[in-house]
């Protein structure tokens, strides 16, 4: 896991020859140039398989994101998302030259469930989970009324996904607090549904798993010390 800035992505989009939905530009224009977004590395085949098995059924628009990647096999790619309220831009970049391979736009406002920062701040202190205290301090910087999107997912499935993702990141120097307890508790919950939300801060990320009522915290991660992805050429810094 690494990070890119909105400015980096704007430069890549400026040189893109791949089709980009018109609303992508409006979302990018509202984002601050120095805002940071996650940049996750995959092989093209691995990314296509993950999207098909875990996300495509509930977000059909992602078909547009994976179609250009079919046939690229082990080619390394970078996946990142830029959010503006309920609007989400998803981008897949070629890792070597940071060219745009695919882009999609989604407005989640019609179907999204949310939790306010105020409510999450109230839930976290009741938890004895290892990352809860760090998470409470981190989200103090956010306004009470900010809404965090809740994504419905299967507990055991997201536990496996986040363990693989964050354990690898931790080996590269990223600090991940609460990973063992998070994955153990959610794995034990099996196919039970959970609601996942994330709050991105200036230098850290808080991820919380809530029960289906959104009234109890069942898992918390606090992540910081991100590493910038390797960058080449003039499209990214």
Largest sheet data: 6 strands, antiparallel
Q: Please give the radius of gyration in angstroms.
A: 17 Å
- Which class best fits the helix and strand makeup? alpha+beta
Strand order of the largest sheet: 6-7-9-10-11-8
Attribute tags:
single chain, six-stranded antiparallel sheet, five-stranded antiparallel sheet, disordered C terminus
Describe this structure in words.
There is one protein chain. The protein has helices at residues 6-14, 22-30, 44-54, 63-66, 117-123, 132-139, 155-171, 179-188; strands at residues 2-5, 36-43, 76-84, 87-94, 100-107, 113-116, 147-154, 175-177, 193-200, 204-210, 217-224. Helices cover 32% and strands 32% of the residues. It has a six-stranded antiparallel β-sheet with strand order 6-7-9-10-11-8. Helix 7 (155-171) packs antiparallel against helix 8. It is globular and about 50 Å long. The chain is built from eight helices and eleven strands. Residues 229-237 have low confidence and may be disordered. The chain is an alpha+beta fold and 237 residues long.
Layout of helices and strands, plus pairs?
Elements: E1 2-5, H1 6-14, H2 22-30, E2 36-43, H3 44-54, H4 63-66, E3 76-84, E4 87-94, E5 100-107, E6 113-116, H5 117-123, H6 132-139, E7 147-154, H7 155-171, E8 175-177, H8 179-188, E9 193-200, E10 204-210, E11 217-224
Antiparallel strand pairs: 1-2, 2-3, 3-4, 4-5, 6-7, 7-9, 8-11, 9-10, 10-11
Helix pairs in contact: 7-8
Précis, in short:
The chain has 237 residues and is α+β, with helices and mostly antiparallel strands. It has eight helices and eleven strands.
């Amino acid at each position: 896991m690494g990070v890119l800035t909105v400015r980096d992505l704007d430069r890549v989009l400026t040189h893109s020859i791949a089709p980009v939905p018109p609303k992508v530009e409006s979302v990018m224009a509202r984002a601050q140039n120095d805002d940071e977004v996650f940049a996750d590395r995959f092989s093209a085949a691995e990314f296509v398989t993950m999207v098909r098995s875990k996300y495509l059924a509930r977000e059909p628009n992602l078909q547009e994101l994976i179609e250009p990647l079919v046939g690229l096999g082990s080619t390394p790619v970078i996946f990142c998302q830029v959010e503006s309220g309920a609007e989400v831009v998803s981008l897949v970049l070629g890792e070597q030259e940071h060219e745009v391979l695919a882009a999609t736009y989604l407005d989640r406002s019609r179907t999204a469930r949310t939790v306010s920062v105020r409510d999450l701040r109230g839930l976290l202190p009741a938890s004895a989970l290892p990352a809860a205290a760090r998470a409470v301090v981190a989200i103090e910087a956010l306004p009470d009324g900010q809404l965090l999107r809740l994504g419905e997912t299967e507990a055991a499935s997201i536990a496996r996904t986040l363990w693989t993702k964050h354990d690898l990141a931790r080996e590269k120097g990223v600090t991940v607090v609460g990973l063992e307890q998070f994955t153990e508790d959610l794995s034990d919950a099996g196919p039970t549904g959970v609601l996942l939300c994330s709050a991105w801060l200036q230098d850290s990320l808080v991820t919380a798993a809530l029960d289906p009522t959104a009234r109890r915290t069942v898992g918390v991660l606090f992540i910081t010390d991100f590493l910038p992805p390797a960058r080449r050429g003039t499209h990214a810094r």
